Amino acid sequence: xxxxxxxxxxxxxxxxxxxxxxxxxxxxxxxxxxxxxxxxxxxxxxxxxxxxxxxxxxxxxxxxxxxxxxxxxxxxxxxxxxxxxxxxxxxxxxxxxxxxxxxxxxxxxxxxxxxxxxxxxxxxxxxxxxxxxxxxxxxxxxxxxxxxxxxxxxxxxxxxxxxxxxxxxxxxxxxxxxxxxxxxxxxxxxxxxxxxxxxxxxxxxxxxxxxxxxxxxxxxxxxxxxxxxxxxxxxxxxxxxxxxxxxxxxxxxxxxxxxxxxxxxxxxxxxxxxxxxxxxxxxxxxxxxxxxxxxxxxxxxxxx
Length: 304
Hints:
Layout: E1 3-6, E2 10-16, E3 31-37, H1 39-49, E4 54-60, H2 65-74, E5 77-83, E6 89-95, E7 101-106, H3 115-122, E8 130-133, H4 140-149, E9 153-156, E10 175-179, H5 180-187, H6 192-202, E11 207-211, E12 217-220, E13 225-228, H7 241-253, H8 259-274, H9 286-296
Parallel strand pairs: 1-4, 1-8, 2-6, 4-5, 8-9, 9-10, 10-11
Antiparallel strand pairs: 2-3, 6-7, 11-12, 12-13
Helix pairs in contact: 1-7, 3-4, 5-6, 7-8, 8-9
């Protein structure tokens, strides 16, 4: 089984700030760093570090070659990464004193993916393989449709949320991983249980993971609902927390469908990630996440 992450590759410009900028405000940053990022890249690194056979499809410009190299160094197959005559996507990230972040994106090469490029990237995958999508690249609708036509399974992290998602064939998605904001956009509900109920009513064949940040995460499918609390840590930078959770959950869930174990491992991996600065660089190795879980877990079961 292989997972193809069809997603974004970004150069992150990270500014440490006392607080998020207000309209009209000019403020000196406390520190600056240039890092590898993009939800696609982060999730691919998390999958690979969690032990999953991972490939990547996406696009960069000449200024983003180091992103492809980082994926390769992590063990990700990058044969489907194309280098275009366009700047690499980038993000301007504010990280405030408590570790929270605010992110401004420029799509760049991520928004230059065509249906023809997508079809070529899906070649060589077989039924039983998975495609992991987000919403930071062009042709997401077409990629989802073509993946299902080829008999592939699809996991979707609909982030960032956009009005265009309403037209996507979400009822064909096998696993939906989203947060409260995205859940609200898809259902109109704000309370977690109402979001879960709304998603299951609309997409009864889809398994759902709803992440709530410091309030933990739920798993829901047609047979069961599980909950795991967040692991308490002192946050330094939350930029890649959700992506770490997504990659680790998928890597733990796919082999045997053990959602309780997958929630628990993903929660601990994400907790480790927020104690470190940066995006891809903060994602732990499998051995680190397992050791951390062994040290901190007091109960091996999720709440029903």
